[in-house]
Structures
1.
Amino acid sequence: MAKNIEKYLLSLLVVVGGVVYFLFGYLYNRSDVLALFGCYTILFIVSYFLISKYKENTKLLVALGIIFRLVFLFAIPNLSQDFYRFIWDGKLLLEGFNVYLFTPASFIDAGQYPIAQAQVLYDGMGPLSAGNHTNYPPINQLCFLVASWFFCDSILGSVVVMRLMVILADMGIVWFGIKLLKELNIATYRMFYYFLNPFIIIELTGNLHFEAVMLFFLVLSLYLIQKNRWQLAACMLAFSVSIKLLPLIFLPLFYKKLGLKNWVLFCVIVLGVVVVTFAPFFSMEFVHHYTDTVALWFRKFEFNASVYYILRSIGYAFSGYNEIAIIGKVLSVSVLLFVLVSATLKRNVRTIGLMHTMLFVMAFYFFTTTTVHPWYLATPLVLSVFTNYKFTVVWSFTIFLSYFSYSTTIYQENTWLLLVEYSAVYAVFFYEVYRENVNNKKTYLTS
């Protein structure tokens, strides 16, 4: 009788989860924020029960994570426009163009249509993306190229290929993540705080963000570091950087783990491989466009920030206008200093200590940066799996409140919702830091 009830409960949870993911993928768009947030809450409850009840059944949880992702397979992303730019870049590469030298608007404004479905892709990506040069590194561009090569004349076909890449990357993260958890003597079920998290399934698989591919190479690199294969780990970290530039921030943190000589060689390999991936696109015009595009994240773009918004308000009070150019530079320098100081910590000698430091670096970066799109949170979330910190899980829920900015035709952030989002995150974060400090003191006194 008890087994029948358990099977019924499992079937119910799977059906509810599958149906709600289907609604996310095929029915709602980002203006349906109340319905979306309600469904998002249901998915978190479903995931919590699945992980709690079946945490010892790794194969079942992996299978459910794959099934939930496959629900999105033929869905056009409805919460993000970025995939239109991905396909544009892929098709442009197929035509032999250097994608870093041209903006979509430069073609359309001149009445030129260099690729199939150019107008549809241009309209879909929106004016912000269309008016700027691409910022996606070369291996990320290779993914776009492959998707466009398989389905040159089909947007849906390209979407399916990219989605399969993201799903395979997530499966790789679970595979090497569980191996790494075993190496560190940490419970393997923690991996499902990532793999079964609705935030990850919706933002990466559903909305086609390539953080999954970046994180696959990052987790693989950390696993290889643990196995003392640091040369190969350096190559994997370089591939991660060539998907998204963000992992470059971790480079100084490997100093204590590897020692000075090996760390220098590690950095040379990482930077050398990254340079090689960029080499086919190199020109002084490329350098100018790419550095300018990356700099926009620190001097112009702003979304869902916390500390930056406080400083911006102070700047308004004193000068009467937005001081983002100055504040962005100050915050960037503060992040750099935080990374350099963190690189000297003794705990970085052990892999588990290194990953704690990486998580804190990511937290500091996203607490202080000017722009925090939801999918950015995937990196600190996967790192938290290897620690006792859960503030990233809380954040992966509250960050969905940022979608309320799109509830009207006029984009506008809600200060009260920002307060709710970050109050919960900071409260859990500081509590967990306090708890760890107390536990460390107890361990020291009893040892």
2.
Amino acid sequence: MNLTKKNLIVGLLVLTLILTVVGCSQKASNNADGKLKIGVVQIVEHPALDAARKGFVDYLNENDYKEGKDVVYDYQNAQGDMSNAQTIAQQFKNDQVDMILAIATPTAQAAANVTSEIPILITAVTDPKAAGLVKDLKTPGTNVTGTSDLTPVRKQLELLKKISPDVKDVGILYNAGETNSVVQAKLAKKVAKDLGLNLVEATVSTTSGVLQAAQSLVGRVDAFYVPTDNTVASSIQAVAKVAYDEDLPLIVGEKGMVEGGALATRGIDYYKLGRQTGKMATKVLKGANPAKMPIEYLENTELIINQDAAKEMNIDLPQKLVDEAAEILKVN
């Protein structure tokens, strides 16, 4: 073998090694233009889910994955319809997207049902294990990982008692078809019993039934509680209207619903949750295995109060809570 040919072979081997290392450090795109394609599916539009999506995209934009330059997003909304969610997920699979961001439990389930190969990052999913998305919260064992929005139900019901110490019967509104809501309702029942409260349920299946469900509780409850339920959150103004008309405190699971007219929450920041999910996504794009990445939680909670809602409900808020609030909203 002459020296020139030997040098050529060595050079090819070195080039192959370099390409292998680069390929392991960052996921190659299926797109012809070299840009990563991320399919984003959201069950419905409401402030919490919108904030989670924005947090995810913002984090990637700030960390080497700029929209339009490095990443192309396919944004899809299922409009609260599971059949739409399944269709969207199937299209993402057909398009061979590089990653799926599934926002909320129903869309995460739809995505996991159609692909076990494309990495799926989830956010705003209350209990990924109960939803059948992972085998274990610490070691998912599937192509799914991400963040949970498990809400601090106990702190929220304790908040209700601080605002209205004499409250006894609490109406809880949720969609019994949403796994995340069922999990929270079960937890609320247990917590309510510990706190000496009686939980009265009213369930819905679509946003059009929210007002009627809230009205059905009038005369039977002293207050309303709405967990992080996507269906009710989308029509929280309807619940707020009944709460205003009947002077009933309305405590909710997240800030977006307070902005929509509820009285208060002690909850998580969905924008921060989305950013945390984005951080996990960058690790997956650089080669991390979702099956080995634990589900993460946002530990810090914030007290958010709507002063206009308090006036509408004829509620005098304890000054101690007002002083403690991370944010005082003046919206109705």
3.
Amino acid sequence: MFMITTIAAWGGFLLFVFAMMAIDLGVFHKKTHTVSTKEAGIWTVVWISLAMLFNAGVYYFLGKEPALNFLTGYLVEYSLSVDNIFVFILLFSYFKVKPEYRHEVLVWGILGALIFRATLIGVGAVLIEQFHWIVYIFGAFLVFTGIKMALPGDHEPDPDKNPIVNFFKRHFPVVNEYHGDHFFIKPEGTHKWHATPLFLVLLVIETTDIMFALDSIPAIFGITNDPFIVFTSNVFAIMGLRSLYFLLDGVMDMFHYLKYGLTAILCFIGVKMLIESFYHFPIVASLGVIAAILATSIVASLIRNRRVAASGNPE
């Protein structure tokens, strides 16, 4: 009975994801257009509301602790996904992608991210079940990543040094100009497919998301080992990432201290994993700490912005 319920839960959730993507692409984004701030705001509210409704369903069917785990995992994944937005802004600017074509890239980029993260979560769940000591490796890695993120230095990806893009260019023809929202074209006079710069943007987004996933997946395993909760919280955070990008594009500089907040969250979860054999940190306390760190970093950023605006001198 438990297995049937589990299969039903997985199947129902995957059907929901595919249905939402079909509605998004087939109804609301059937025609290529620039996503407005209003549209992005509506979709952001929709995805957050759906996540909270799902959380209520987890509470009703699975209980309080899984629901708290989902909420904490969703908050962690959603906040860490802000780092992806920084990268999106950089890449779209670097490749000079027109605003009306950015949604197309993000759709396919997020679809690839879901497939890769599902694979990574499955592997992680098996490893933790078979070799529990790997939790300590995850914890140490998160602390290391958090400290590295806080240190000064250039953490932005350089598309010209992306090995996958360079490999692709060496083995596949690429045209220099964009052709609308097409990833591949057949130039006149040839029967061979050529990639457009838009596909190169997609390649860079996919490879950088892999790097982000290596941070975020261990982080959520520091909250729960339940693959269903890990996957669903990841999916809701990733699915809401597109609208969040269009909502925050142009105002990301306002959150100056958010990076340090994310650093503190990674380090907190890492330490929590390292000491779990000696002390089990209550999930309610974990949720409170993570929410407090996020709130503090955002409020501190807004205070800094007001101070800078009043002085007239950027720091």
4.
Amino acid sequence: MKIKKTNVALPAIHEMGRKIQQLSAETGQEYLFLQRGINSVVNIELNEVVKSIDFNSKEIQTYPPSQGRAELREAINNEYFGGKTDISCISICGGGMPGIDNAFQITDVRKIYLPVYHWGNYHNAMKIRKIEYAEYDSFESLNKIISDIKDCAVLLGDPGNPFGNKYDENEIFAMIKKLNDNGTVVFYDSPYRRVFYDKNDNFYQRLLDIDNLVILDSFSKSLGLSGQRLGFVHSKNAEFNHEMAVRLAFATNGTNAFAQILVEKLLTTEAGKKAVTDFKTTTVAEITKNIKYLKEAGFIANEFYHESVPIGIFAIVNVSEDVLLENRIGSVSLSKFTLSHKQEASKYSRVCVSVNHNKFVEFFENMKAKI
């Protein structure tokens, strides 16, 4: 059998997860799983929410519409866009990655520009799809090449991965608008934003006047539902939305109906809203304490936060992946998040800060006493 090979390796977090599970089993010692990109402070409490779901209903036991259930898209419109967009602009996908992958394929551009430090799945998806990509250092560097990227796209993440950093709202809005006015497509990938914001956040509403823009979001982080694999894509371009619906139809025949109904309940019912609020409140409190600890203990890599601030769910520490592993802390080397700065980045690691604060401090204090 002949195989069309991607020549792309599985994500580094998979290998690190396997490694520390094996080490834990062999040594009988506890390891801190900070290589993962999930909120692990608490689980979202779903028991009350699922009581209102009829598992024998046609809505769950038949194929959902390819673009997603209208009820969920309306709930997203109200929650994220203040009811000011049209649900035809919203497509439901099986998590953030399928949304990103399809958006990259649909948009006809010469090249996609990624931040120098970025989530590796971006360039891996483009490598598989044979899409040309390049890197940019900063907003300043984008401004310098603005005239050369009219027929290109730029990916912006805020809060970002791997840094967990947040830019000033007006600064990032101005950058998006400048790119749009230049004729450059913007992919705004923001699956972490709603961990820290609620319905009163109007940033997506501000973006509704921008045409060359695709908003990518998911419920894995903001609702703690990584396992349900559900996200959404927003675009004002009718042709883009048609192509997205077609691709989702042939790839999935409709995205998981149960996950769609579950998220709809979380966004619209009293029990759901309480579950979301409780989950976010506890999660953000622990994230905030963990970042504060890293700063005070001298572990945060301040050199990466000159123009932004770390808010989570990740942070960069000035300790290598190997040293962290020696101290039973899982992480991913920052070198796995860049194509051009690997040697320099190998001195640093990305850690997930969305874990129990006391356990987080315990492991880092043990390491601090040794190094």
